[in-house]
Design goal:
heterotrimer; A mainly alpha (307); B alpha+beta (527); C mainly alpha (311); A: 76% helix; C: mainly alpha
């Protein structure tokens, strides 16, 4: 186990380096820069700005400077857009908030999504199945940019039960709507995936054999069907977890929770090079970490899996 | 499943509470600020969100009243000598920074020299040279002279002397801008870029910074050291950087915000009905226009440009599309700009049927008609608002003139680059004035101006602007220049922007007459 | 965990497998009904413009004056004067710019159905093969292939779109490239996970022992056994891709006015749902119906293709 994690860590470094390099090159290929604005500053002002942020240097030199600061000082550089702030500071401020909303959402996805999916599979083609699947389909088809404003209108404007936005120092009533908006479509997808996977497993011959032998359904389900049925769900949850933390842009925009998701979009539209690189590295690291965890969970679910 | 019950329970409990602005914080006003300011350092601020914060934190030499007229700020009085090229400001007595130190003329001198220093690389440093015309400003920005050579001197503690490159009769109104606010030298030297953080920041306005969370909120509290603190009604301001207009409106309707930054266009008819007292429209010193690529045939033909401009039914656009009380624009400079007299132009004196007839004729003269349709590549930046205007106008052109339109939307910075590179026939544009004077608009069409994306070049026009800068009464030159714009049609003005806000009924004193939207919270109160 | 699941690599058997599958699919009523509805949706996309006298780009100036009232869905034009002079009504109402929503929905479905299907297809084909190869080969190959997926998953996608657009200009084909670039990543991860566990199964080991070549094992033994999960996940991808298209178009690549798509209609409708709800309801309904059908067809396909499901 330890050896596996160490090996992964070792591979993670070149992976991240490639990610940074590709992202760096791609960003610079995009038209416009951090100081492109509607009111074009006079050339002299632009030159001063470029000089201040090293943008006047050759791109390879800029890359070198960035990598040096990153590796030697763990410094992600200053934000181009939020001129008084460093990228480290922006990430430190926004990541914990996204993580809190993401973790809560993740919790509900697991305790709701998987059970209802499996329930639907066991009751395949009964009303339970149809109602769970109708919910799941609605959850998938209602994008959160529709769901979030609807919730705000209902629970905050009409009923006045919950705040319409803000972080409120992380009090739970401020988190309910963001979590709901964040988690619903994931719950739906996990339910759908769990159901499909479980039906698949239940129809396999060894489960049929077990059932034919007269084993009670619950034992068949727990002892034999659960583990293989969870395989694709676990993979998806690994991907979803990263998405929950880094993909919160709609929630950030609708609820002003100050999360990190919006930086992926705004950073790009602002051409805030250092901020984008910072959040990209974070997303990459999370992705690598969770894929490693998922790979470890595979061996727990199916001991015959070797890498 | 018990967790679901818990949530249901906590929701039920929450149902008894209300999240509206509570009575305890009644003395704090909550204002939607549109977006997170890129900076709140007066030297680096660019645009309204930062400006809005700076108006509260700092006080310049002069200020603007609710009608947009100049009134004394930190300076009590001022005098101009030598044909408006030398200005002397006398500061009030007893001005203090929020840390108790004295505000002196030297603080202004330091701040202004800081703005033009290449080291700070202020994105608005051009304001010191182009708008304020301070001596050596351009040279300092270019790096050819030291910033210390800037034409500003603290004669003594209370006297600031400013030397200009040329006569600027409206200098006091220029001096009200946030770029010209004083900043505390000692604090900046101690904290560097970190000086704008809560705890570090020291300011001279009615409020001081208390807390700031990126993309969530910013809290300002009363500065008890402010000279006029006794007359400041509100104890604090909270700015919320809400970019999503619909979310902002929802938070207003939920009672969490007193004043919104704007309102969603589609909701305006409903808001007019349901919130007649809160929905507020006031003029904004900005014009919405379409620019033509004057170097790209056939748009190098003024008849083509003029025809397209004439065929736009601006009344329909403002009434049915933009809906926010905008005024149809027939001249580039907004008609309400101080001292500006608009020339009589064809667009404004005819009715739409006559304009359409004229447009068809002009286009036919240029060789286009329904049999030989004009093809237009139209460029705009992605936004529901711009899309709606573009759709309506493209239909007007198509139905009246048989124009074939290719609409293309682009993400903001790509759009700006494409426009700079001339990759359009017609493009959407907007321009907001930096001060209440016609030159802030007209300058744009000068040959070689950085924002002259139409690449319009007219020797007579350039000459008029040079003359105007020297003249005693510049406005007659502006009128002539505007007549050239109408004749040559390098751009088609469409409407003058308005500011639309939801302002809670208990907010008193919002300066709706100030077209630059300069709002001093110290003058507001809550009932 | 023992299993006798196996697929014989015999070509004759293979064909009868497809026959079986077709027979089983026909027997699935929900799937067949859904398939018929999908045919109607496709017919709507192709011929729907004959349902209204309006085209998708013409502004109805009467409706534009007050979309909230004159742009309502109606059988006769809500503006009395307009109705009098014989202006055609808007059965689904108009969009916020006074254009016929039915005509726009028809036009949008052409784009969106293609985007949804293409996205799902790319995901299924590339994702399945990539994942199966990675999982089956294991070791260094697996590590390399999965690290590549990790890089692609986290890299700033918006810039890819912006750069594509800067280089090639606007082109509908580019949407497919952009969507194709991301849609298969999750699928590859999922398939690879399944493959890891499949490759230890007896029937695979038996095939290896018989000396069956690796590509054949992957295509004949691994892929058919992961198809169940693949189909389920692919149906989940369809609506995501349809909505994703509107984001790409937002950046300037893809569909441009006056053309539209379901994603664009839904996001525009969401902005004004409180005053002109029909602008959200109709496109959302179209997406929902299509998705439900894809879902049942997907389930039917899965049951039909399931190699375990022999009758």
């Amino acid at each position: 186990m330890l050896k596996f994690m160490l090996k992964r860590l070792f591979v993670a470094i070149p992976t991240l380096l490639i990610l940074i390099t590709v992202s760096f090159a791609l960003m610079r290929a995009a038209p416009g820069g951090p100081f492109t604005s509607e009111k074009t500053p006079p050339p002299a002002v632009l030159e001063n700005l470029n000089a201040k942020y090293n943008l006047d240097k050759h791109i390879v030199v800029q890359y070198g400077i960035y990598m040096r600061d990153l590796i030697l000082y763990q410094d992600f550089g200053p934000s181009f857009k939020y001129q008084d702030r460093s990228v480290t500071e922006i990430i430190e401020g926004s990541f914990p908030r996204s993580a809190i909303i993401g973790l809560w959402s993740f919790f509900f996805i697991i305790i709701i999504g998987i059970p209802i999916g499996i329930w639907a599979a066991v009751k395949q083609n009964h009303w339970q199945d149809y109602s769970v699947m109708s919910f799941a389909m609605s959850g998938v088809v209602f994008p959160n940019f529709v769901l979030a404003p609807l919730c705000v209108w209902l629970f905050a404007v009409k009923l006045g039960w919950l705040p319409a936005g803000g972080w409120g120092d992380g009090q739970f009533n401020y988190l309910i709507l963001p979590i709901f908006a964040m988690a619903t479509s994931y719950i739906a997808q996990v339910a759908r995936l769990s159901r499909g996977s479980m039906i698949e497993v239940l129809s396999s011959s060894y489960i049929r054999t077990a059932r034919a032998k007269g084993l009670p359904t619950s034992i068949v389900l727990w002892r034999h069907a659960m583990k293989p049925a969870l395989m694709p769900v676990i993979t998806y949850l690994g991907i979803a977890f990263v998405g929950l933390i880094t993909g919160s842009v709609i929630v950030d925009q609708v609820f002003q929770t100050g999360g990190i998701g919006q930086h992926f979009v705004q950073g790009a539209t602002n051409r805030d090079y250092s901020l984008i690189l910072g959040v990209t590295i974070l997303a990459g690291a999370l992705s690598i970490l969770f894929n490693a965890i998922v790979d470890m969970l595979y061996t727990a679910l199916d001991p015959r899996i070797r890498y | 499943m018990s967790s679901i019950k818990k949530i249901a329970l906590s929701m039920a409990v929450a149902g008894t509470a209300t999240f509206a602005i509570s009575a305890a914080s009644a003395a704090t006003i909550v204002i939607g600020n549109g977006a997170e300011p890129a900076s709140i350092d007066p030297g680096k601020i660019e645009g309204q969100p930062g400006g809005m914060v700076a108006y509260q934190l700092f006080e310049g030499l002069t200020a603007l009243n609710s009608e947009g007229e100049v009134i004394p700020g930190a300076a009590e009085s001022w005098t101009a000598t030598e044909n408006n090229t030398v200005w002397t400001f006398e500061l009030r007595d007893g001005l203090k920074w929020s840390n108790g130190e004295d505000v002196t003329a030297a603080d202004f001198e330091y701040a202004w020299k800081r703005v033009v220093s290449p080291e700070l690389a202020s994105p608005y440093s051009w304001y010191m040279s182009k708008a304020a015309q301070i001596k050596n400003a351009q040279e300092a920005i270019d790096g050819t002279v030291e910033p210390s050579m800037l034409g500003v001197t603290a004669v003594d503690e209370d006297t600031l002397r400013v030397e200009l490159k040329q006569s600027v009769p409206y200098f006091p109104s220029v001096a009200a801008h946030y770029t010209m606010y004083p900043v505390p030298q000692e604090v900046i030297e101690e904290h560097g870029d970190m000086w704008t953080r809560p705890g570090n920041m020291v300011s001279n306005g009615a409020y001081k910074l208390d807390a700031w969370t990126l993309n969530e909120k910013m809290d300002l509290v009363r500065n008890t050291n402010y000279w006029d603190n006794a007359n400041v009604a509100l104890d604090g301001v909270t700015f919320l950087p809400i970019e999503d207009e619909n979310s902002e409106l929802a938070r207003f309707e939920a009672g969490e915000i007193h004043v919104t930054a704007t309102v969603p266009n589609a909701q305006i008819p409903r808001l007019k009905r349901e919130f007649a007292d809160e929905f507020t429209i006031y003029p904004n010193l900005a014009v919405y226009y379409y620019e033509f690529n004057t170097e790209e045939p056939p748009f190098d033909d003024r008849r083509v440009r003029k025809a397209l401009s004439l065929a736009i039914d601006r009344e329909v656009i403002v009434r049915a599309v933009t809906k926010g009380g905008q005024t149809p624009a027939y001249t580039f400079v907004p008609t309400f700009v101080a001292g500006f007299e608009a020339p009589t132009v064809a667009e404004s004196s005819l009715n739409q049927i006559e304009r359409d007839r004229m447009a068809i004729e002009l286009l036919a003269e240029a060789g286009f008609g329904k049999d030989n349709p004009l093809e237009v590549d139209f460029l705009y930046n992605t936004s529901e608002f711009h899309r709606s205007v573009a759709v309506a106008i493209s239909q007007m052109w198509k139905q009246k003139l048989g124009v074939e339109m290719n609409l293309q939307n682009q993400e903001w910075k790509t759009f700006l680059e494409t426009k700079k590179a001339g990759g359009f026939d017609v493009a959407r544009a907007g321009w907001g004035g930096d001060y209440n004077e016609a030159s802030t608009f007209l300058d744009l069409l000068r040959t070689g101006h950085g924002n002259n994306d139409s690449n319009f070049s007219n020797a007579e026009y350039d000459r008029l602007l040079v003359e105007a800068a020297r003249a005693e009464n510049a406005n007659e030159y502006y009128t002539k220049a505007e007549a050239i714009i109408s004749e040559e049609a390098p751009l088609a003005p469409i409407f003058y922007y308005t500011r639309t806000r939801m302002i809670s009924e208990n907010v008193q004193g919002w300066p709706v007459g100030n077209a630059q939207d300069v709002v001093y919270v110290k003058d507001l109160s809550l009932q | 965990m023992t299993t006798q699941d196996q697929v014989l690599p015999d070509s004759v058997k293979g064909r009868s497998l497809w026959d079986d599958a077709f027979r089983r699919f026909k027997a699935n009523r929900a799937a067949m009904i859904s398939l018929i509805v999908l045919v109607f949706v496709a017919a709507f996309a192709i011929f729907g413009n004959y349902l209204t006298q309006w085209d998708y780009e013409t502004v109805d100036w009467f409706a534009l004056e007050d979309v909230e009232f004159y742009g309502k869905p109606a059988m006769t034009h809500p503006n009395e004067y307009a109705a009098e002079i014989g202006t055609a009504p808007h059965y689904f109402g108009t969009d916020s710019d006074g254009r016929d929503l039915l005509a726009r929905l028809v036009q949008g479905s052409r784009i969106s159905l293609m985007v949804g299907l293409m996205g799902a297809l790319v995901a299924v084909v590339i994702g399945t093969i990539y994942g199966a190869v990675s999982g089956y080969m294991g070791g260094k190959v697996d590590s390399l292939m999965m690290r590549a997926v990790e890089i692609l998953m986290s890299f700033p996608f918006m810039f890819l779109v912006i750069v594509l657009m800067a280089i090639f200009g606007r082109n509908v084909l580019l949407i497919f490239i952009a969507i194709g670039a991301v849609s298969w990543l999750d699928m590859a991860r999922i398939v690879r996970g399944q493959t890891l566990s499949l490759k230890n199964k007896e029937f695979v080991e038996a095939a290896i022992a018989q000396g069956v070549r690796t590509p054949v094992i992957i295509m004949r033994h691994i892929v058919p056994n992961v198809l169940g999960v693949v189909v389920v996940y692919a149906t989940l991808l369809v609506p995501q891709m349809i909505l994703f298209e509107s984001f790409i178009s937002f950046l300037g690549l893809g569909v441009s006015e006056p053309q539209t798509s379901w994603g664009a209609l839904i996001s525009a409708g969401a902005d004004s749902m409180r005053i002109t709800p029909w602008q959200l309801i109709f496109p959302l309904l179209a997406l929902t119906i299509t998705l439900f059908c894809f879902n049942f067809v997907g389930d039917g396909l899965r049951d039909a293709l399931d190699p375990k499901n022999k009758k």
